[in-house]
């Protein structure tokens, strides 16, 4: 990985740059060997995947609840209609 690519990577992923800045040895390894940034980025993204994003989970569960409520009301209307027949 070239220096231009490392700069672009850091510009596109500010969270990765902040993670690198937490440890001086990571910064030193990237400065001495820009190719190491690729391996560190893979390690960072793998670590990030393990986290749960509760914001999106709550949005999805809210949406699923709304859909299920709609389906339940349709089923109730159908049940009422069949009782009248």
Notes on the structure:
With 85 residues, the protein is mainly α. The protein folds into 2 domains: 51 residues, no CATH class; 33 residues. Helix content is 85%, strand content 0%. The longest helix has 31 residues. The model has no long low-confidence stretch (mean pLDDT 89).
Explain the layout of strands and helices.
Elements: H1 3-12, H2 14-21, H3 24-32, H4 36-49, H5 54-84
Helix content: over 70%
Distance between the termini: 73 Å
What sort of overall outline do the alpha carbons produce when their principal axes are compared? rod-shaped
* Rounded Rg: 25 Å
Low-confidence stretches: none
- What is the helix tally? 5
Counted beta strands: 0
- Biggest sheet, in brief? none
Order of helices and strands: HHHHH
Structurally, the number of domains stands at 2
Strand percentage: under 5%
Structural class: mainly alpha
Q: What does the average pLDDT come to?
A: 89
Summarize the structure.
The chain contains 5 helices and no strands. The protein is an all-alpha fold.
């Amino acid at each position: 990985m070239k220096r231009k690519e490392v700069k672009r990577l850091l510009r596109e992923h500010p969270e990765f740059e902040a993670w690198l800045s937490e440890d001086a040895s990571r910064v030193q390894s990237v400065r001495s060997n820009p190719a190491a940034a690729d391996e560190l980025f893979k390690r960072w993204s793998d670590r990030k995947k393990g986290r749960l994003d509760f914001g999106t989970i709550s949005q999805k569960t809210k949406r699923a609840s709304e859909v299920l409520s709609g389906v339940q009301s349709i089923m109730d209307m159908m049940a009422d209609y069949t009782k009248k027949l």
